Amino acid sequence: MRPRGPIPNTTIGQAELFQTTGAFKVRGAFNKILSELQHARRSGVVAVSGGNHAQAVAYAGRVLGCRTVVLTHRSTPRNYLDATRGYGAEVIQLEDISEAFAKAHDYEEQGMLFVHPFDDPLVMAGQGTLGLEILEDVPGVTDVFVSIGGGGLMSGVAVAIRSQKNVRFRGVETEGADATALSLAAGHPVEIRPSSIAQTLGAPSAAPRTLAMAKEHLLSVTVVSDKEAVEALEILLERAKVLTEPAASCTLAAALRAKERFRPDCHIVLILCGGNLGVEDLCEYHAKFLER
Fold first, then answer.
1. pLDDT at 230 > cutoff 70
2. Domain covering 25-115: architecture
């Protein structure tokens, strides 16, 4: 049985899961659309996402007065779909995420502004604002654990922080959503068919741009199991009173694996990048991984 009570020597700052739409993705979505606002208002915006990016683009489109179309796969959880539609987007579900990217290309050729979930310098720069805030809140930071889906968050935050301070960056993925780890091992982008419960990490491949960023900035990439991510999720919920997605709690799972390497003077940041987890899914994960 896990001990109860708060996690010792831990501060929960302005976690990204408290953003409007429940994740960091609003940063990149707003930066991209604001940078090409006339185009977006004239022709509309299209995005591909399994969840958090979808809500971010839909919300940004509503605030900025743009039509938004979101392409997603049929297994996207209902809470993501409901929220995305609630922000005013047209949602189209397709068989898989690769088909969604192909369809997005068609919309882009028709004139719509494509807001890529990670492989876009303006999206990366928007996510990088989080890195600047980390430096403000934790000026003594020595280590950052960041989960990797497509790598936009990792890229933006790493560049923002490491341009000012030599910080160790450790990427985290889950088994079945480990395109970056596989691509780094292969030396080139590798396509996968995502199977992890951490659906918001489920990019079908690493992009050459984000893979280059991973090579330059990451000390390591740790791949944890879905079970470890759920165990860490419940630790955060029970002790820090914060409900995250597995895509965020996996950073704690990776940090727990590495805890013997840290000295007392280390200042470690875990980026809790999203909290859009439905109650049904939470109960399902507990039953599947922990009730044994």
1. yes
2. 3-Layer(aba) Sandwich (3.40)
